[in-house]
Amino acid sequence: MSNIYESAATTLDLFNTPCLTKVELRVACKGISDRDALSKPDPCVVLKMQSHGQWFEVDRTEVIRSSSSPIFSKVFTIDFYFEEVQRLRFELHDISSHNGLKDADFLGAMECTLGQIVSQRKLSKALLKQGNTAGKSSITVTAEELSGNNDYVELAFSANKLDDKDFFSKSDPFLEIFRVNDDGTGSLVHRTETIMNNLSPVWKSFKVSLNTLCSGDHQRELKCTVYDWDSNGKHDFIGEFQTTFREMKGDTPKPTVFIQWDCINPKYQVKKKNYRNSGVVTLYQCKIIKMHSFLDYIMGGCQIQFTVAIDFTASNGDPRNSCSLHYIHPYQPNEYLKALVAVGEICQDYDSDKMFPAFGFGGQIPPDFKVSNRFALSCINCVCVCVCVCVCVCAGIQGVVEAYQNCLPKIQLYGPTNIAPIIQKVASAASEEMHTKEAMEYFILLILTDGVITDMADTREAIVHASHLPMSVIIVGIGNADFSDMQMLDGDDGILRSPKGEPVLRDIVQFVPFRSFKHASPAALAKSVLAEVPNQVVDYYNNKGIKPKNLPCTRRHFNKTTQPAQIRV
């Protein structure tokens, strides 16, 4: 085979595509005060992103002359990362001279996160002037996903009357499909299985992304080659043909149910006078599979329901002792608080009411100080707390922090470290969401624990059950305990199974020890534990065939010339 063809990955994971997405932001302002009685302002908006605590300019709009309610045509393009808090600042300036911002009048600013914008699709806020005083002017930022083509296609080929290349048996044919690149080289897209001893093979169907197949260009040339497999690796060439995806999907003047090509051997074509072909290849299935993105679901109204569970077992140490993992230092948050805030600060942007359930486990709680494996932190004084029938939630992540700090003096740390009841609690809520068959709520459970769990069998059973639900579990190991057994729950090293042998439907658990990020920024921890969540959300809904609700009517596509903002928080 010609060496101009370089092999690409031949095995493709249908649902394991990167969730990096580009977002377009459009800006408009209202109610900008006139410069004076005779003239209106000449507004311009400057977009800044925060990196390492400092603001850096990313881009700016055009200047619109004499306008108090400008709608800017400039579009900001930014890379979106769910696992990061991407802080943005929109500054409005009145540029009345040719010196640009140097002599411009500052008219106000608005700060937010990119997550807040995309979760609402349109964010309107007052512009704050110096001293954070709100004026009459406001700014509206609208988000739209700028996505590449994430769709897949399912193809199935067969052949008829292929040339026989073997003396004592029939050919053992397989088919290779190459994408022809802009420089004339080829990349292997797919290689079928080999059908032994058969001149009219029917190959299994396969799935491939349109990006891989044709770089999103439906008219890009595809070269298909049929070989007779030989055990020594020197496969015999049978024939080839050229096509495009446009032709495959029947988008031609004369579409047919099945698309057929003559399989041509160029040498035979030259040498044999009456040569017609070396067989016929038929495409008998071409099905486009629409792949929705994470932002399709978020912008379609899907809410991230965030729940936190905290370990109150005795191995944490007496909270009154400075060596305790639960010790509340007046100036330095403990590891529980650092992990809680790092993850919760991101998740709260995708929950409209920002009311979060927060549970504890392994502690003895008032009034009778019996051990509870699931109690609500904000209801520690409720008479119903022991039976856990009330729905006690906290207002925002700060509310979770306060509930945790307030309940510490009232709880006696005990044990054991059982986390299955917490997983089952959240799974129960996720199960109700599953029955709606709509993409309205996806649940994220953050478990913070200082030791090896003592109900491993029940936990494995609970996780296998939860893998069928719209739910992900994040476990952060606090302190210096040996967490080697916890790696079993994270499916990165193998498939987690229940005690009965049932495998997880999908990988929903992410475990990290906090000590690995002890000297890193909180953002590094959040990025590590949340990076897989967008894929898990998309994986669940696509597997269930659930489309986003209220999907934006337009979804722009980008090409290689698009230049997104490169600053990352």
UniProtKB/TrEMBL annotation:
One Pfam family of this chain: C2
Keywords linked to the UniProt accession: Calcium, Metal-binding, Repeat
UniProt-listed InterPro entries: C2_dom, C2_domain_sf, C2B_Copine, Copine, Copine_C, VWF_A, vWFA_dom_sf
C2 domain mapped to chain residues: 1-127, 133-258
GO molecular function terms attached to this record: calcium-dependent phospholipid binding; metal ion binding
UniProt KW Metal-binding keyword: yes
PANTHER family given in the database record: COPINE, COPINE-4
Name of the protein this chain belongs to: C2 domain-containing protein
